[in-house]
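User: hey, got a sec? need Isoleucyl-tRNA synthetase folded
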Amino acid sequence: MSKSWSATLRLPKSTFPPRPLPKLREQYIQRSADHLYEWQKKNRPADDTFVIHDGPPYANGALHVGHALNKILKDMILRVKVQQGRRVDYIPGWDCHGLPIELKALEGSQGAKLSPIEIRKSARNLASNTVLKQMKGFRSYGVMGDWDRRWTTMDAAFEIRQLRLFQQMIKKGLIYRRFKPVYWSPSSRTALAEAELEYRDDHVSTSAWVRFPITEEWRTLPQFEGLRNKIQGPLYAVIWTTTPWTLPANRAIAVHDDLEYCVVLLGGSTVLVAESRLETLVSKIGAQEYFQIIGTLTGKDLVGLKYVNRLRGKDAEPQPVIHADFVSADSGSGLVHLAPGHGFDDYEVCRPLGIPVAAPIDDQGKFTQDAFPDFPEALLTAPSVSEGGGQYVLSMLQLHCDVLWVEKYQHKYPYDWRTKQPVVIRATEQWFADVESIKQEALSALDDIRFVPESGRKRLESFIQGRSEWCISRQRAWGVPIPALYDDTGAAVVNEDVVEHIISVIQERGTHAWWSDAPDDPAWIPSSLEGKGQYRRGTDTMDVWFDSGSSWTMMPGRADVYLEGSDQHRGWFQSSLLTRIAAGAQVDADFEKGAPFKQLITHGFTLDQYGKKMSKSLGNIIEPQQVIDGTLLPPIKQKKKAAQGPPAYDALGPDALRLWAASSDYTRDVAIGVPVLSAIHTALIKYRTTVKMLLGSLHESARSSPLSVTDHIAIIQLQDTMQEVGKAFDNHEFYKGFAVLNRWITNDLSAFYLEALKDRLYCGDGGGVLEPILTGLLRMLAPMTPLLVEEAWDHRPEWMKQDSSLSHPLQQIYSDPVIDESCLIYSLESLRKDVPILMSVHGAIKSGLEAARSDKVVGSSLQSSVIIDVTDTSIRKVLQTYAEELEAMFVVSSVDINTAFPKDPEWSYTRDFEVNGEVKGKVVVLPPNQAKCPRCWRYVAPREDKLCHRCEDVVDTV
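Assistant: Yep! Here you go:
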């Protein structure tokens, strides 16, 4: 092409860079996030506010991609609502109390020597610094929110609201203190709630078959009349246990009234065992040939027998055999050892019978004097229950030959989810919230809640249904104190009046004063208790789930969305719902009954590229900054001189991280790694390339240029795509919207419209519908890649900057028309019926051209002409309607319909095309009919080196 022709072309020109510039990142974050949030607060209606309530992240460490997934999902939902014309409200929060922060604050210090107030000061400093670091991280993802109003569970105002909630539950009789079994973590030295456990399937316990001697009173009972002469020595009850360390706490043996039990002569002694379990017992101890059944009894016959637990010493009182519904014929021996201080079921069956509760281990899981009352020397050598305590107990029983069999047993077992160490069940004095009395109301409150995914409903319901009470006390210094006083006997005094007085003192002095004030400081004692004895303040703190679960008290109504990881069904979702229902309408006059949320959205865990859950121990943790900086992908190939320095990476910024989140089906576990991020980078670069081309090709003259049928088709495709993407976004299914958008860019925009428009853009009048397409594209990208949208708007052509009627894409209403339909020539609805025909023919021509390229007979599609052969009248009529524009639409040099094929062409490629699944005709791709125009390269010139008529007219006007 000669320079004179080149000078007459309108080639794309744009200042939009191929990659984002890191030095401008902070500026674009402020404009697309902070400034947008402030703008929408002033320009969206206050009476139509959409609220996402933050599930507070824990302020004890660095952020990982799981945090990023959570925050970006919330941010995308908020941006969609802004596009829908609503005001949004998002106040970020942090969970700042609890054991992990306390332990981390004590790292490297003499923690055991620190006072509670010193521990609290160190923990507060750690949490405060972590909040600031995490906030900086969240903001670097382009997340918008009311950061200046951020809240933490350690804020004085938050703690008061939490104590007020506790007070309301006291008033309603939902809080009580009881000595009963709870999950106890020896490694953390505190009680745990169910939500703080994780279960391992590979836990190995020491299981044992053990016998207990029945007292001689059995000989006087009528049901044993026929057995008295057959049993010469003692009679024993055989139990099986996987927790032999609990045997010192044994206080009863349970049988089932309706089971059959055998009296068996076994190795010189006589034992009781369920008939269904006898074969298992004799096979275990290798006595298949040495046992004799001398009688059978029902469980009902055994109830009332007494036996002795030798571990309790020579003066131990005989203990009862009782009935329990949970005794099974399918496991153990059919006689169940009960330690009501170490088992939930044991406790429930023993409590109504007045059987005492004992738990003779201390906070670290070591045996106390009560475990072996006649053997104090045993405590000197006894290991903790998690370090061989069970074997130690069995060795003591073996002195009496009471251990029949010992073996290892692998089974599911609870672990402390923070220390990753086994927990035990241990009876202690703890504070509980009554869940049983509010359970049905809580379940009913979920009836009108939308769950995403829907499977979350059953998951949350199952956790609530399986719970009767909630242990809300913890034995730590870093937390909100349980506002209770204790008298000289150790009895707790807590009522509405006591709590009200304590709250008033805390409002004046702060929660630190609970620990720093003198033990006998009278200021903490309400007037109603003055002169009635000595009282001290308790040292228990509230469960952190009670802390974060109280956060709904910050809202006047219900949040539109709670969105967190799927583990929060047993955590924050549940604690929020239960505290809300427990408080009832007494918190606030404007209180809105029901669950604190209208929608409950959960996402899965983040996995590495091999499908493994990320963990520090595996070393597969990915930090969000690695995605932002591109350092997970191979470095960019550099020129020799540059290659001598440090490697450079393709840093696509926060949009790369956001697009990963948007593209992920978060309702499942989400993978991230090189393959996934490579695909994300490809998509994001495609967006940038497309935006750059659009920006560089926008001409103000296009606003007044007539629209072609191809333009109309592009508008139809855009509108259909925006509708589908908008629906997906509204349903929080960003991954579906991402897929639809990519399909449109690849198939409709790039492969069809932009390809067809290039000739008109570069060589013709510069018309088309690129401005509406850019508008629609930026609206679809806005929730996912707001920095790219902000950057694109910054690089719009000067004539667009001068147009004050154009609003920022991030502020536009998504559903507003992208084009003034008064300028349309064709009816879009009528044309919509014809589009499948045109696209089918287009596809057939593309297929023929690909074959021609493979055979190297053409390079450009303009090096061809096309004949369409169609017999169907309706199809032919459609094609003839748009005949004058078909060559431009299909990007070939000429298109003829039902004309005669040339004889002996140099080459030809024939392809059928279908409409609605039926073959309706064929296309034949042939060599061009005319010469190549040196300006536009179409083969429509009368001869070589001669301009075509269109180009002659354009050149004449330049």
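Quick note: The radius of gyration is 39 Å. Let me know if you need anything else on Isoleucyl-tRNA synthetase.
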